[in-house]
Amino acid sequence: MKIDDITVSRAIAESFTKDFVDSMEVDVAIAGAGPSGMMAAYYLAKAGVKTAIFERQLRVGGGMPGGGMMFNRIVLQEEGKELLDEIGVQTKEYEKGYYIADSLETISTLCFRSIQAGAKIFNLISVEDVMIREHDRIVGLVLNWSAVSLANLHVDPLAVRSKTVIDATGHASEICHIVVKKLGGKLNTRTGGVVGEKSLWADVGERELVENTREVYPGLIVAGMAANAVYGSPRMGAIFGGMLLSGKKAAEIVLRDHADN
Ligand code: 48F
């Protein structure tokens, strides 16, 4: 067969555009393809919920591929390890109750599982705003190519509508910051704003992370490190069980809410 260059180009452009246009109305729009965002997407897609993730970077994974200080390994406690067993990532017990996994194997499996379950992941796209309607409810995300802000170009964005948004943007908790800054929005934190993460304390940080994973504003759930930053809990370094459990809990909240409505 002779390869036609234009067929290759048309296949890429048409296939991408079809998925992108289809994702303009989803059940759940997730900002950030780190471990918590992809774990949430996996459980949602597996349950038949139409889910899209928008990721600013060229690659997915957020802070996971770098492991701890560029040693590409991550540590998990028992509950986190069980989630890796479920998606087929190998772990080794290091000491009683402490499991070690390869950060690249983990993040690539999370990406593979979430896409195979039916989630769409769009990389190189940044969330630059939210969409709101009456009753101060968030009803979607406002997107632009990451290259636009990198090149400092003045280009207007496009929008996607969703029943629920998940802020899985990590330490920066960007979507919650947007809500506070642009909507004067009152988050349901003790200050009404983003409280800010505390210094490293893995034991407390991991425990509080799951509690902090919740609806922080109507239509907006916060997950992963963003949840601890928003509610004022400690960071935890390169232990990742909490991130996975947080993603799973975010998915469970959505499934419960969508079943009620
Ligand atoms: O930072 P990240 O990995 O968040 P996470 O899922 O996991 C945190 C851990 O990696 C680590 C940790 C472990 O103890 O604390 O930090 O909570 O992934 C967040 C992703 O969101 C993307 C960012 O590029 C990263 O891949 N992101 C951030 N802001 C935006 C965004 C935005 N405005 N639009 C799109 N993507």
Write a compact overview of the structure shown.
The protein is an alpha/beta fold and 261 residues long.
Structure keywords:
FAD/NAD(P)-binding domain; globular; binds ligand 48F; alpha/beta; 3-stranded antiparallel sheet; 261 residues; 8-stranded mixed sheet
Which helices and strands appear, and what pairs or packs with what?
Blueprint: H1 5-22, E1 25-31, H2 35-46, E2 51-55, E3 73-76, H3 78-87, E4 92-95, E5 98-102, H4 103-117, E6 120-123, E7 125-133, E8 137-145, H5 146-150, E9 158-167, H6 174-183, H7 202-212, E10 214-217, E11 220-222, H8 225-231, H9 241-260
Parallel strand pairs: 1-2, 1-9, 2-6, 9-11
Antiparallel strand pairs: 3-5, 4-5, 7-8, 8-9, 10-11
The structure holds ligand 48F.
CATH class: Alpha Beta
The CATH architecture classification is 3-Layer(bba) Sandwich
The gross shape turns out to be: globular
What percent of residues adopt helix (DSSP H or I)? 40-55%
Largest sheet: 8 strands, mixed
Q: Count of DSSP helices?
A: 9
Structural class of the secondary elements? alpha/beta
**Topology as H/E string?**
HEHEEHEEHEEEHEHHEEHH
Bound molecules: ligand 48F
What is the CA-atom radius of gyration, in angstroms?
A: 18 Å
Overall tally of domains? 1
In whole angstroms, the N-to-C terminal distance is 53 Å
Mean pLDDT comes to: 97
Write out the CATH superfamily name.
FAD/NAD(P)-binding domain
What do we call the CATH topology? FAD/NAD(P)-binding domain
Low-confidence residue ranges: none
Please report which band the strand proportion falls in: under 5%, 5-15%, 15-25%, 25-35%, 35-45% or over 45%: 15-25%
